[in-house]
Amino acid sequence: MEELISIKDVSYIYNDGKKALQDVNISVGKGEKIAIMGPNGAGKSTLFGLLNGILKPSSGIIKIDKLETVKKNLPKIRRDVGVVFQDSDDQLFNSSVRQEIAYGLLNIGVFGEELNKTIKWALEVVGMEGYEDKSPHNLSGGEKKRIALASVLAMKPKVLVLDEPTASLDPRGVSKLIKLLDYINKKFNITLIFSTHDVDIVPLLADRVYLIDKGKIVLNGSTEEVFDNKEIIRKMDLRLPRVAHLVEILEKDGEVQVDKLPLTIGQARKILKNRSDINV
Ligand SMILES: Nc1ncnc2c1ncn2[C@@H]1O[C@H](COP(=O)(O)OP(=O)(O)OP(=O)(O)O)[C@@H](O)[C@H]1O
Ligand SMILES: [Mg+2]
């Protein structure tokens, strides 16, 4: 698989001396869906700030599609890397949804009919048609998230970087966003990197997971491989998906026997279906 993002031996120290990232190595292939999972303060947002050059690594090298994140490459890199911030209020600053989405496009020279078409397309993808004239500030948390996503998507980035994308969403909003991100990944072949401490969503969206704690990558592998390391996950103040925890308890009680804990309801259903005394 062709590499899109290469993070090599990267450390980041804030001005006050806080070592937020230490010797981080990450490699992401084109079209992959990657979860960066870690507790509060692990360094996830710092890592994302480095990806589009908002922050400069204290040491190490970051490359996006073979281009290093140094000043002369930043205009190209900022088009290729679309970041959806943790807090939508940090992202939305225009007085209408239309202007919000037009802003980045105008900056890269998209005008007229092409501009209108792209705005319409981005709003359709996120399911927010008809909101063009609304002020982003008068939208709900979940709606703001969708507009922020539309404004980034409109730039047709190679990779979408989403910092805690589900944090402000209600349960239906979460499942709609997961479907939407999966659709965007498949339909437009846009690579996804998202950070989260919501362990239940990770198996639904990620191909691979990097576990980060206190600025260091603790573990990486396929979603199944990473969730196999129960002790490490629990030591990091995270947990297993609830459905995995339930089956773990049932197994301890001698109620079921599994080779691998299920990570999603779909997987759990298959296991429980084999039990003739349980109707699922
Ligand atoms: N501007 C800053 N100056 C100094 N230290 C900072 C700054 N921003 C973040 N930090 C520190 O760096 C560490 C990593 O912070 P970061 O925001 O990257 O964590 P995070 O994994 O995104 O956490 P959360 O899940 O709470 O969003 C934390 O200890 C934080 O206190
Ligand atoms: Mg954060």
TrEMBL record:
The source's domain of life comes to Bacteria
Q: Where in the cell is it found?
A: Cell membrane
Q: Which InterPro entries does the record cross-reference, listed alphabetically?
A: AAA+_ATPase, ABC_transporter-like_ATP-bd, ABC_transporter-like_CS, ABC_transpr_CbiO/EcfA_su, Co_trans_ATP-bd, ECF_ABC_transporter_ATP-bd, P-loop_NTPase
Span-the-membrane segments of this chain are: none
GO biological process: one example: cobalt ion transport
The Swiss-Prot or TrEMBL record annotates one GO molecular function as: ATP hydrolysis activity
Q: Name one GO cellular component term.
A: ATP-binding cassette (ABC) transporter complex
The cross-references to PROSITE patterns, in alphabetical order and at most eight, read: ABC_TRANSPORTER_1, ABC_TRANSPORTER_2
In the bilayer, the protein is annotated as: Peripheral membrane protein
**Keyword Cell wall biogenesis/degradation annotated:** no
Q: Does the keyword DNA repair apply?
A: no
What Pfam families does the entry give? ABC_tran
Protein keywords: ATP-binding, Cell membrane, Membrane, Nucleotide-binding, Translocase, Transport
So what family is this one in? Belongs to the ABC transporter superfamily.
User: What does the UniProt record say this protein does?
Assistant: Part of an ABC transporter complex. Responsible for energy coupling to the transport system.
The protein, known as: ABC transporter ATP-binding protein
Species whose genome carries this gene: Clostridium acidisoli DSM 12555
